[in-house]
Amino acid sequence: MLSLPNARPYEFQFPLSTTALIIIDIQRDFVDPGGFGSVQCGNDEIFGKARAIVPTVKRVLDIFRSVNGHVIHTREGHQPDLADLPSAKKLRQISAPHGHHTLGIGDQGPMGRLLVRGEYGHDIIDELTPWPGETVIDKPGKGSFWGTDIHRILLARGVTHLLFAGVTTECCVTSTLRECNDRGYQCCVLDDCTQGFDAQQVATSLDTVCAQDGLFGFVGTSSDFFTAVNNHSPAPHRRRSAPIDELLSRYRKGIMSPVDVVNFVFDKVERYKQFDAAVWIHLQTREKAVAAAEELINKYSDKPLPPLFGVPFSVKDTIDVDGITTTAACPQYAYLATFNAPAVQHVLDAGGIFIGKANLDQLATGLSGCRSVYGIPHSVFSTRHISGGSSSGSSVSVGAKLVSFGLATDTAGSGRVPAAFNGIVGFKPTKGTVSAKGLVPACRTLDTITVVAPSVPDARKVWRIIAQHDPDDPFSKLPHTLPTWKVDFRGPRLGGFTFAVPPPASLSVCTPEYRELFTQAVKTLRASGGRLVEVDYSVFEVAGDLLYEGALLHERMTCLGLDFLKTQLEELHPVIKALFGGALANPPSAYDVFRDQALQIQLTRKAQQTFDTLRGGVDVLVVPTTTQHPTIEQMVADPLALNSKLGTFTHYANVVDMCGVNVPAGVYVDGSGTTLPFGITVLGGSGYDAKVLDIAAVAEEAFREGGVKGQDN
User: Fold this and answer.
1) What does the DSSP 8-state code read for residue 489?
2) Which of 14, 48, 86, 320 has its CA 20 to 30 A from that of 33?
């Protein structure tokens, strides 16, 4: 914890890792002559004081950037057609009989139309130009929450504390601070990093913030902040640094370059082929990857680096990469992609380096990893045991440390199960929050592009980059329709959280080793701030049965194309052929389809109520990711029944619109003496991705401390 000891009304303490710097409206329109601010102020001498805070603000900003802190800039302004400008705001001041407002919002000024987006005056001043990866909130109001996604952005980053700078103190700065206070954030405004156009109002506004023992927050100074940072000597921390951040740190320090990393990756990929030759369906050529790395180096020479600069990644071969054939592990289905899927493009724009297309269960159908004509990948822990599927190659590529992360998919557990079998993190976001364009559909209403990564912070970093609303994806959710919740500034470990688990009868399907490890995991969660609460688990079990026993299986077939399945059925992998062949021979009636649709809607509502903490719900549901870890021989011998068992705790999540993340939670030794991984999944309701990741990070940290029997420290 850092501290501002001289803050009012008392010492302000904050953890740098979960503190964001919010710079309010330091845009040309507010601090340069001729903008809306000069009109608003009406006094050139007073107006000039607003610009005087910029050097101090920049020093604070530089420190946040040096520690990879969260930085958020806001800009007040309106759409060019002023559709988001209320008449009261437009007319109130300019209509004052004896006022000095000769120009109003939207009128032409020296720097373009006043407070209109896209105009020169609307942009942030050059000294504080946002870096790649920093958030810019375009707000139509004086506060920052109406008409924006700032609350969800803060939640996504796990922010608990806020430091404020900007203009004007009496208006936009304290308006936003008070909005943040209502949502549970600990807020402190740095009084020498903010300024307004009325000295008395500035003083009164700051006094009001910290009045009555901190009614709205704290008021501190930048000098205390600089001292706190300079004196801060981070003690060894329980949580390991995220591998992606470690790589970026080395780039910034000049210890290595993206070209070095690319060559290292391809050397390792070639060596790993001798251990497992079935990880990849298509590998980018070393020459093209090196060229991409060199292009990045040239593009960002002497410039701030984007958040995934030079980070190597894999892509499941159901996700389109421009100019590369997408096979879905089915040669008969293959086609040449003519554009990058938006998720891939977002990663490339953030500096990622594409390495290759990863193997999978054919047509993304199965949890085994044993259903590909391109070979059977095995777990990184054992040549005898399955890798899990359908995102088999993606998970192995990360588990074997061939790449830093992978873009995978999850329709019924396809990202979580293989992550568990390879000892890595597998995060399934809320469906409709990551664009599904450029994705071979397995089941359109359930499909989600996911992230597999070495750690929860890495998965979270990539998720924040790819989870961008796509208006061209008909299955996407509008961000403002997703839930938000109050923040506990203490974090889930100190502030606590509630969780539920399946009843003993449901857990009986697990092997004894899995049951024991899950029991230990629950104990660890309770010791880490969790409070165990009982819920009606039957909702989830009924929903799980819908996936393959109801009309949703036939939706999968419709998405793939009935004509394709009928004409190519004999050419498919034998297990896929058996699954779809049986379904083709027994189609549902229209009555069955409508019945199942109605049941799915009812179950989804009940499931979401489980996570409504305002009405007695829990924060998360915690389950074993899967039930056992079969050998390849066992899976090949009993592919359908065993696959169904593996999905016991994953199938329902997509059906009732949940998000979830697999977290490595220990290892065990099986009867043959093989050490194998165990994972739990932290599940939440639709849109609760950030909460799930917050609690998953607590779990990951606790397990790495050795809180679970057998955990490798």
Assistant:
1) T
2) 86
CB 265 within 8 A of CB 290: no
Question: Is 506 known to be catalytic?
Answer: no
From CA 555, how far away is CA 244, in angstroms rounded?
Answer: 38
Nearest partner of 156 among 141, 135, 142, judged by Cα: 135
How far is C-alpha 599 from the chain's CA centre? 30
Which of 316, 428, 461, 691 is catalytic? The answer is 316
Q: Is residue 386 within 8 Å of 368, Cβ to Cβ? A: yes
Q: How far apart are CA 377 and CA 375, in angstroms?
A: 6
Q: Is the N-terminal amide bond of 168 cis, ω within 30° of 0?
A: yes
Q: Distance (Å, rounded) from C-alpha 536 to C-alpha 553?
A: 26
> Quick check: is 368 catalytic?
no
A 10 A CB-CB count for 313 gives 26
Give the pLDDT of residue 136. Answer: 98
Q: Which two tokens stand for residue 693?
A: 């990741």
Please report which helix (H) or strand (E) contains residue 180, including its range: helix 174-182
Given a contact cutoff of 8 angstroms between Cβ atoms, the answer to whether 122 and 74 are in contact is: no
* Residue from 483, 623, 639 nearest 544 by CA: 623
Predicted local confidence at residue 40, as pLDDT: 86
For residue 359, what is the DSSP state? P
User: Does residue 206 contact residue 181 with C-beta atoms inside 8 Å?
Assistant: no
Radius of gyration over alpha carbons of the chain, in Å? 27
Helix/strand/coil percentages in the chain, nearest 5:
40, 20, 40
β-bridge mates for residue 660, sequence order: 428, 683
Strand 161-167 to 186-195 pairing: parallel
> How distant, in Å, are the alpha carbons of 128, 158, 567, 617 from that of 488?
30, 10, 56, 17
* Tokens found for residue 356: 């290759």
Query: In this predicted structure, what is the pLDDT of residue 625?
Result: 98
Of 372, 390, 394, 397, the active-site residue reads 390
DSSP per position, 57-90 = HHHHHHHHHHTT-EEEEEEE-B-TT-TT--HHHH
d(CA 443, CA 623): 24
Angstrom distances, CA of residue 436 to CA of 317, 340, 392, 430, 557: 14, 11, 20, 12, 17
**Which amino acid makes up residue 125?**
I
How are beta strands 108-109 and 112-113 bridged, if at all? antiparallel
- Separation of alpha carbons 251 and 308, rounded Å: 11
d(CA 689, CA 668): 29
For the record, the structure tokens of 582 come out as: 């049986």
In the residue annotation, 301 being an active-site residue is answered as: no
349's CB contacts (< 8 A; 6+ apart) are 306
Residue 685 near residue 619, CB atoms below 8 Å:
no
Round to whole Å and give the CA distance between 107 and 96.
Answer: 17
Three-class SS state of 535: coil
pLDDT along the chain (713 residues), means of 10: 97 96 97 91 88 97 94 98 96 92 93 97 97 97 96 97 97 98 98 96 98 98 95 58 89 96 98 98 98 98 96 98 98 98 98 98 96 98 98 98 98 97 98 97 95 98 97 95 96 96 98 98 97 97 89 88 93 93 90 94 97 95 98 97 97 97 97 96 98 98 72 38
| Dist. CA 260–CA 573, nearest whole Å | 39
Closest by Cα among 526, 529, 495 to 185: 495
319-325 contacts, C-beta under 8 A, 24 or more apart? 319/343, 319/344, 319/407, 319/409, 319/438, 319/439, 319/440, 319/449, 320/344, 320/438, 320/439, 321/354, 321/357, 324/282, 324/357, 325/282
- Specify whether the CB–CB gap between 475 and 445 falls below 8 A: yes
Closest by CA to 498, choosing from 220, 665, 685, is 685
Closest CA to 353 of 398, 399, 286, 451: 286
**What letter does residue 472 receive in the DSSP assignment?**
T
- How far apart CA 364 and CA 372 sit, in angstroms, is 10
- Answer for the pair 403, 265: CB distance below 8 angstroms, yes or no: yes
